[in-house]
Structures are given as structure tokens and as C-alpha cells.
């Protein structure tokens, strides 16, 4: 299937590891120009070099903090300067932050919303005019299944992720007239640096496959998902193969969520 990504320009926030990194590799393998960002320069440059080594193609890596509006604007401006256009935006930057309601400080609330909600808002606002100029585009906002069905002690993440779902739905309505599709993916238990650290700390005697099965006992598919599996879905959603899909929030969770 021709996904129609050849020559398009994609910006991926939080692209130095995990799902963002896997998505960058997938999109560049499909012929897209790819821009990634991250807050830590050494980690970001290591990721860019690894992508080039594995794909034979170079990515543009920009050090940027998605909690800062000026950095969001710098990221988009750098992409346009390099490639003259933006067709795809993947708002992936975010970390899991979960605590009981009474334990969360005002500063933690602000930090979480600044990164996960306003980071997506500010990057999208900077990118959309360039998409309109070239006849349309595709945006994917990464959220979590807890944004649909929150679980105990899951704040502030569940709240900021729910806001991301509302943002996605509203943007799809406002931007459809410009040929811009906006969708979300709701991530469940997916292999990440954070989960790998937990595995090595809590169960160093188990192989990854054994640990994945143990952690996945309550997941219908029986295992932790791989970052590449999420990247495959994101790549589909931003491609021409999904040209009539907008305003949806697709679970990538192995069937774990009770919500569609």
C-alpha cells in the first residue's frame, strides 16, 4: 500500500526515545522528511545518529522544551526553514505523572498541563498556518487510555490526557474545512525507558518476554505493547490511507480499556 508520505514533512515532539523515536524511524522509512525534538541535547543527538545509522536518512533534531511556547514556535520555524513546509505534526511529548489527588501540588498540576496540553496547543497553533498554506495536513495527539477511563491515583495525567481528547475532537471540527485531519491515539502499557527501568529494578531475573507476559496478565493480548506497534498506527493515521479519518481517539492498549 502506498501511504503517500514521500516528500512530506513531519514534526514529532518527544522524538528522542520510545514511541516518538519509533514513529520517526517509520515515517522516514516511508520517505518523509522528519524533524524531532527533545529537551536533552545528548539524548536527542544520540537518537538522531541512531536513526541515520538504521535508515540511511538524516533527521533534523531540535533541542526544545514543549512547556515553553517560544520553543514550540522555534521548533516549527526550524522545520519550515529546512523543508519549506509542514504536513504532519505528532504531539508526543509527555511523561507519566500519577499520584493521589490530595498529594498533587499546584506546581505539579501546572507542569503536567503545560507539557501535555499546552505543548500540543502551542505546536499545533504554530504549525497549522503552514498546513493551510499547502492545502492540508494531519495531526496526531498522543494521550492515554486513562483519559477515557481514569483509574485510582492517576492524576494529574488522567486529567491532562482527557483534555487532550477534547482538544483533538474540537480541533478536528475547526480545522476540517482546511483539509487538516486531527486524531488521537490512547496509549496503554507500551514498552518505554520508564518501563524498562522498572523491569531491571523489580525483576532482573526475568527476560523481557517473561516480564512482559507477567505485566500483561490483565491485558487481553497478554503482554506489554512495543513502541513500533504504536508507531505503525500513528503512521497510518497521518498517511493518505487514513484520508477520511478525523476526530477519532484510537486505543493502542492490547484490549485493556473498557472504553471504545
Automatic annotation (TrEMBL):
Swiss-Prot/TrEMBL GO biological process terms: bile acid metabolic process
Keyword check for Cytoplasm: no
Single annotated GO MF: 3-oxoacyl-[acyl-carrier-protein] reductase (NADPH) activity
Entry EC no(s): 1.1.1.100
Pfam families: adh_short_C2
Key words of the record: Oxidoreductase
Domain Ketoreductase: 8-178
InterPro entries found in the cross-reference section: KR_dom (IPR057326), NAD(P)-bd_dom_sf (IPR036291), SDR (IPR050259), SDR_fam (IPR002347)
Entry annotated with the keyword Oxidoreductase: yes
NCBIfam families: PRK07231.1
Family to which the UniProt record says this protein belongs: Belongs to the short-chain dehydrogenases/reductases (SDR) family.
Full protein name: 3-oxoacyl-[acyl-carrier-protein] reductase FabG
Organism, scientific name: Kurthia zopfii
Amino acid at each position: 500500500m502506498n501511504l503517500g508520505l514521500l516528500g512530506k514533512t513531519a514534526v514529532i515532539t518527544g522524538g528522542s526515545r520510545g514511541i516518538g523515536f519509533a514513529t520517526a524511524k517509520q515515517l522516514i522509512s516511508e520517505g518523509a522528511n522528519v524533524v524531532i525534538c527533545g529537551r536533552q541535547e545528548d539524548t536527542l543527538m544520540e537518537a538522531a545518529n541512531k536513526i541515520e545509522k538504521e535508515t540511511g536518512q538524516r533527521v533534523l533534531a531540535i533541542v526544545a522544551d514543549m512547556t515553553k511556547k517560544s520553543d514550540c514556535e522555534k521548533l516549527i520555524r526550524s522545520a519550515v526553514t529546512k523543508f519549506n513546509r509542514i504536513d504532519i505534526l505528532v504531539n508526543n511529548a509527555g511523561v507519566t505523572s500519577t499520584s493521589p489527588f490530595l498529594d498533587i501540588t499546584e506546581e505539579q498540576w501546572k507542569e503536567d498541563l503545560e507539557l501535555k496540553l499546552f505543548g500540543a496547543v502551542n505546536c499545533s497553533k504554530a504549525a497549522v498556518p503552514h498546513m493551510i498554506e499547502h492545502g492540508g495536513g494531519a495531526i496526531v495527539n498522543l494521550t492515554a487510555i486513562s483519559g477515557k477511563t481514569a483509574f485510582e491515583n492517576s492524576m494529574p495525567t488522567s486529567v491532562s490526557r482527557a483534555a487532550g481528547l477534547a482538544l483533538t475532537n474540537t480541533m478536528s471540527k475547526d480545522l476540517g474545512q482546511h483539509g487538516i485531519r486531527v486524531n488521537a491515539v490512547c496509549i496503554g502499557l507500551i514498552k518505554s525507558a520508564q518501563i524498562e527501568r522498572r523491569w531491571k529494578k523489580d525483576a532482573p531475573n526475568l527476560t523481557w518476554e517473561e516480564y512482559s507476559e507477567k505485566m500483561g496478565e490483565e491485558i487481553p493480548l497478554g503482554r506489554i505493547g512495543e513502541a513500533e506497534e504504536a508507531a505503525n498506527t500513528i503512521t497510518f493515521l497521518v498517511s493518505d490511507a487514513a484520508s477520511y479519518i478525523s476526530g477519532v481517539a484510537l486505543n493502542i492498549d492490547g484490549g485493556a480499556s473498557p472504553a471504545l
